[in-house]
Amino acid sequence: MATVVIPALLRKLTGGKDRTSATGATLKDIINDLERQFPGFRERVVENGDLAGSIAVAIDGEVITGGLSESVPADSEIHFVPAIGGG
Asked: Looking at the domain 2-82, which fold is it?
């Protein structure tokens, strides 16, 4: 089971929790489990069938590039991080 770190912007969906657990073999599975636990979560992190551009995801400290199909090893730590833009 993965530990998921929830950013402040999404904590209203989790009842204020900054961490939770979710199960799944891929990021898509993890998001589906989070949606089951916290309805509305998926629509905040997925757009047009892929990760929303406003969210970056790190698994065990590495920012992922594989999108929703990214593998999630057992006992991983996943961070949903608001993407930072600028120039």
From this structure: Ubiquitin-like (UB roll) (3.10.20)
